Amino acid sequence: MRSSSNPAFRNLPGGGTQTYGQYGPPVGFNQPQGGVPGYGPGQAASGEGERPMTVDDVVVKTGMSLGVALLVGVITAIWGRTQIDPSGGISGALLGAMLGGLVVGLVISLVIIFRQKPSGPLTLTYSAAEGLFLGALSALFEAFFPGIALQAIIGTAGVFIGMLVVYKTGAVKVTPKLTKWIVGATVGVAVLMLFNLISTLAFGFNPLRGGGTIAIIFSLVCIGIAAFSFLLDFDQADRMIREGMPSKWAWYTAFGLMTTLVWLYLEILRLLSYFRE
Predict the structure, then answer these.
(1) 11, 115, 30, 53: which is closest to 243 by C-alpha?
(2) Which backbone phi and psi does 168 adopt, to 5 degrees?
(3) 114-128 confidence digits (pLDDT tens)
(4) Which of 13, 123, 203, 266 has the smallest C-beta neighbourhood within 10 Å, fewest atoms?
(5) 8 Å CB contact between 60 and 36
(6) What distance in Å separates the CA atoms of residue 17 and residue 38, rounded to the nearest whole number?
């Protein structure tokens, strides 16, 4: 299975005639038998007890995850507005909700990624945690830039739908060369973010996130990389479906798409704030 810039889709097991490496298939996953190279997966092994994943599975699981994140996010944002006084003071409860959502979401995402196993409860919990974090953060941005959260949501939805159309129409083909470029760009951006964080904490110098021309360009680059990452996510989902992965793996696909959506929303929110300053 082709590599992806999304860590959730790295080194996934495959179905059909996919090779699993020295450790074999994951626990609970029975490799289909009788597959013919070039003609898709063969008959599922007897006793598998689970149908292959379909597009509908991916749509439903992703919709559920996104719905949980939106519901928690909207409730948190509405509550969060009451935790900010007119002078700009922020309550400890709002900061706690923001930090709590961030930490819980990060921990759960690492658990899902390193376990390399699908889990509906973990995926929905991750979505709820990210909804809490993004909702609290959006309330903070809204206090200074009214209407910015809705603009960021519309922008995120627009990019997602646009890249889905690009993928489905084949306007941009997901090739090994494109995949390597996106993975490399993602790693490069992550390294720059790390150095920027160190620079900010150690010297108070924040060129990539402090506003201004450099910050705007960096956010545009991040938005572009996140947008193209959707192509890799869609391609990975298609491959999992074609290789006959069990339907429960749709939860893993939903988690991968959610991580990209969260990153994209954050970058669009930042970019919009630069133009409001």
Answers:
(1) 53
(2) -65, -35
(3) 988 899 999 999 999
(4) 203
(5) no
(6) 9
